[in-house]
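input
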Amino acid sequence: MALNGAPLSVQGLRKSYGANEVLRGVSFSIERGECFGLLGPNGAGKTTTLRLCLGLADADGGTARLNGLPVPERAREARSRAGVVPQMDNLDPDFTVEENLLVYGRYFGYSDAEVRSRIPQLLDFAGLAGRADSRIQTLSGGMKRRLTLARALMNDPDILFMDEPTTGLDPQARHLIWERLKTLLAQGKTILLTTHFMEEAERLCNRLAIMDHGKIIASGSPRELIEEHIEPEVVEVWGETASEWGSRHARGLASRVEQAGETVFCYTANAAPLLASLEGARELRYLHRPADLEDVFLKLTGRDLRD
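output
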């Protein structure tokens, strides 16, 4: 199936569950070969957006086209050139690694012989060479996520949907998946990524959108969002007297001050006066750093916990 235009394009998507309006007019498109990120607190609408884009649920309004085809009207055909790494692992625990891939390959109409011919390369790519006969229960969390990625590549997709692919993984496993995703992007694959890891988004995404309460509230490249929405320098100060220091010094020296627990966050275009005021304050600890995507995210969506 030939791709026409953007691998994924959505316009004005709306979705409600009862009185809860989950999506309120979401629009974006993804260019071929780029990684596009969807960021947002829990309940912002990210997973619902992915489900509508894949034709796994019907929108109440708006349109979506996947691989040039309208969904959900032609969802099955559109998904034949898409791969999915869901938020929660859904591997069959009663099957071996190879058997999980065989069953998945049949979904796309491949013969067992065709799937078996693909398995060694897929497992090697996922860092699971030699584990074809392993039971799922014997795999670590990182191995399971890498197997889910290998499974998503079974049909050599043009676009990958990845819903929080590295949640719960240790740093080593997370970095390995990042390297594999970079390899896929270098091969010309397109990726739609949802994540709570801001470092992950900064490393992988060409562009991203920040969602909250079912709407996109900001979009652009990571660097564009930082330059547009946040002061360039941040001084974090913590300790028992940080709040008192913040009241006496920071609010007059920083452009913007936020406090979370015992930590005072000072946002500024020039950190020198703040750093000077901290000299000799041995009861305080501080960190001076450039602003990053997490600062933008917290400014736009708030620091309150979402369940």
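quick obs: The chain has eleven helices and 14 strands.
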